[in-house]
């Protein structure tokens, strides 16, 4: 059974009725399961120190349990190393591993409820330093070698981070919860979940210069081979609106096509193949759709079949689809690999609530 929300969103905030309602739902469902006990967090005895040609998995861990971890899948021999960060650094990563960004031989690990970004050296995964001072960081977008943006759940702002000093340089006011970010034509596009729009930021001045109205909760987006922006909107955690997939011209900022889902659907995790011609997303199962299609697909490419599909990524070199299974959110989850036609290839047992997938070819 899957639930229409992301566990890592939730940090108490008495001013946000909707998020408190969802937090209650989480507690309710967690109470319906018997906790299987402490997860086996013992690190890989001998970390390889070789983290190329593979897949990083950010295992979120349980909110306020401090059991976030990182797994690495070696695609040369299809082995997996769990608890990589703990094994190398002899300390735990923190609370809720949200996302990961690779830049200049470094990995930036965004740890949501620990309010930090942990920077590690990719050659050995040893900690270089940490950037602190965030409220509830979500994702990081590298603008250039000297600057990055970080989105946040509760800050009502975008952080501008100096990558040379590894400090927060300033914040840019952005009302509501900011989430995914990408660069296109010298501008940063940022999903604004609460206010149902995509913000447009000038990366030279760090000013928000425009916005694009969307359906509620634009949770993920991609760029296709025509440089069009595809935005996937869930419609809201309480199904306030009909979910939709929207295609936007980034030059005019106009919606050129909109595909509506069924009421009660909760689509997430929009991805695209390396050619920029096929979209993939989660809606219980995994769906595939051509960017030239006139309607949404009606049958999943990969059926959920009793699993809890949680996060997804499409490999940038061969288009293999990687999907995580959160099981019951209380025990170790799984990562599954399929080819682009939905044929099962491999599966690995990872950490608790395996989430964000980061490819390192």
Structure at a glance:
This protein is 6% helix and 46% strand. It is mainly β.
Radius of gyration: 19 Å
The general outline is globular
- Round the mean pLDDT to the nearest integer and report it: 89
- H/E element sequence: HEEEHEEEEEEEEEEEEEEEEEEEEEEEE
Amino- and carboxy-terminal Cα gap = 33 Å
Main β-sheet, in a few words?
A: 4 strands, antiparallel
Structural class: mainly beta
Helix proportion of residues, in percent? Answer: under 10%
Number of helices: 2
Please provide the count of β strands.
27
Q: In percent terms, what proportion of residues is strand?
A: over 45%
Strand order of the largest sheet: 3-2-1-27
The poorly predicted ranges are: 1-42
Q: Can you characterise this structure?
A:
The protein has 361 residues and is mainly beta. Helices cover 6% and strands 46% of the residues. The protein has 2 helices and 27 strands. It has helices spanning 17-31, 84-89; strands at 54-59, 69-74, 79-81, 97-103, 106-111, 116-121, 127-131, 137-144, 147-152, 157-162, 167-173, 178-184, 187-192, 197-202, 207-213, 218-223, 229-233, 244-249, 254-260, 268-272, 278-283, 285-290, 309-314, 321-325, 332-338, 344-352, 354-360. The chain has a 4-stranded antiparallel sheet. It has a 4-stranded antiparallel sheet with strand order 4-5-6-7, with no helix packed on it. The chain has a 4-stranded antiparallel sheet with strand order 8-9-10-11, with no helix packed on it. A hairpin with a 6-residue loop joins β23 (309-314) and β24. The protein is globular, with a radius of gyration of 19 Å.
């Amino acid at each position: 059974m899957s639930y229409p929300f992301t566990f890592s969103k939730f940090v108490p905030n008495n001013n946000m009725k909707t998020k408190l309602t969802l937090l209650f739902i989480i507690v309710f469902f967690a109470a319906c399961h018997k906790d299987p006990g402490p997860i086996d967090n013992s690190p890989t005895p001998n970390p390889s120190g070789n983290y190329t040609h593979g897949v990083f998995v950010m295992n979120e861990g349980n909110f306020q349990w401090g059991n976030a971890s990182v797994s690495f899948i070696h695609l040369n021999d299809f082995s997996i190393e769990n608890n990589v960060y703990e094994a190398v650094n002899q300390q735990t990563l923190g609370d809720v591993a949200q996302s990961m960004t690779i830049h200049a031989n470094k990995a930036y690990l965004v740890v949501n409820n620990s309010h930090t970004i942990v920077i590690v050296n990719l050659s050995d995964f040893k900690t270089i330093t940490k950037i602190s001072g965030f409220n509830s960081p979500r994702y990081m977008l590298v603008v250039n070698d000297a600057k990055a943006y970080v989105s946040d759940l509760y800050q009502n702002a975008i952080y501008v981070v100096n990558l040379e000093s590894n400090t927060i340089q300033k914040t840019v006011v952005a009302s509501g919860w900011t989430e995914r970010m990408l660069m296109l034509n010298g501008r940063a596009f940022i999903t604004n979940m609460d206010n149902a729009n995509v913000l447009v930021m000038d990366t030279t001045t760090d000013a928000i210069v425009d916005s694009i109205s969307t359906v509620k909760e634009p949770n993920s987006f991609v760029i296709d081979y025509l440089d069009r922006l595809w935005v996937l909107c869930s419609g809201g955690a309480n199904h306030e609106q009909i979910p939709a997939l929207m295609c936007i011209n980034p030059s005019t900022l106009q919606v050129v096509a909109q595909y509506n889902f069924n009421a009660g659907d909760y689509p997430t995790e929009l991805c695209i193949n390396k050619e920029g011609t096929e979209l993939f997303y989660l809606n219980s199962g995994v769906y595939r759709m051509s960017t030239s299609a006139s309607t949404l697909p009606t049958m999943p490419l990969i059926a959920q079949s009793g699993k809890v599909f949680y996060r997804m990524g499409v490999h940038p070199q061969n288009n293999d689809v990687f999907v995580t299974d959160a099981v019951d959110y209380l025990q170790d989850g799984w990562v599954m690999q399929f080819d682009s036609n939905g044929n099962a290839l491999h599966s690995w047992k990872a950490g608790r609530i395996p989430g964000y997938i980061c490819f390192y070819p």
